[in-house]
Structure formats: C-alpha cells, structure tokens
C-alpha cells in the first residue's frame, strides 16, 4: 500500500496498519486499514481505489480471502472467481437461480446476471 501510494503521487507515505480480530485453528482474520494525505492529489478517490485494488490483489495472490463475515458485495465481486474458482461460481449461480430466479435479493452483488432488476 505504501509503495502503490508513492507510485500514485501521494506525498506523505500511506498509513497502513492492521489488527487481528479472530483467531482460529486454521488461520486468523486480519483487517487492514489505510489512510493517506490527499493534499495535492487530483483524484483522491481514484488513488484510494488503486491502492485498495493493489492490496486486495496481493492478498489473493498470497492465498488470502477478500472477505470474512461481511460478505463480498458489488465492490469486491471482481475477486470472487479467483477465490472460489469456476466450480464455485457455477454453484453460486445455481443456488441464486433456484432460490431467487427473478434476481430480486442482492441483485448483482456476487455475480452479474442478465435478468437484473436494477
């Protein structure tokens, strides 16, 4: 996150920190936080998005998950296929089609559908 911020022209180093919130016998849930000084940054939202994307890409590359108990949602669904694979996506689509054929609940939160009502 710090390196990506520097690449994107953030003058003061990005603040990157984390905390462990749950510990299990198979791993832990680690929350990462970032902040940066947006002075002189033309599009702070774009810079934030680029830093977060780079961080999530690295987490996935290292075998991590993009979500714990908060779900995936529209903002993180880009990483879902690399997390659950093609079989996982097929299973999710099948469940969604069976339980919510009109795509009313959580429309397009996990996977895009052709029959979205939104």
UniProtKB/TrEMBL annotation:
Main location as per UniProt: other
Positions of transmembrane segments: none
PANTHER family cross-referenced by the UniProt entry: ALKYLDIHYDROXYACETONEPHOSPHATE SYNTHASE, PEROXISOMAL
GO cellular component: peroxisome
UniProt protein name: Alkylglycerone-phosphate synthase
Catalytic activity entry: a long chain fatty alcohol + a 1-acylglycerone 3-phosphate = a 1-O-alkylglycerone 3-phosphate + a long-chain fatty acid + H(+)
Keyword DNA damage annotated: no
Compartments in which it is found: Peroxisome
Gene3D superfamilies: 3.30.300.330, Vanillyl-alcohol Oxidase, Chain A, domain 4
């Amino acid at each position: 996150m710090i390196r990506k911020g520097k690449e994107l022209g953030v003058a003061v180093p990005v603040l990157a920190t984390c905390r462990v919130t749950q510990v299990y016998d198979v791993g832990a849930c680690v929350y990462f936080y970032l902040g940066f000084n947006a002075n002189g940054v033309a599009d702070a939202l774009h810079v934030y998005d680029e830093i977060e994307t780079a961080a999530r890409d690295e987490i996935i590359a290292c075998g991590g998950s993009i979500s714990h108990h908060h779900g995936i949602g529209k903002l993180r669904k880009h990483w879902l296929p690399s997390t659950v694979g093609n079989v996982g996506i097929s299973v999710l689509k099948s469940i969604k089609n069976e339980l919510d054929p009109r795509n009313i609940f959580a429309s397009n939160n996990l996977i895009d559908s052709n029959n979205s009502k939104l």
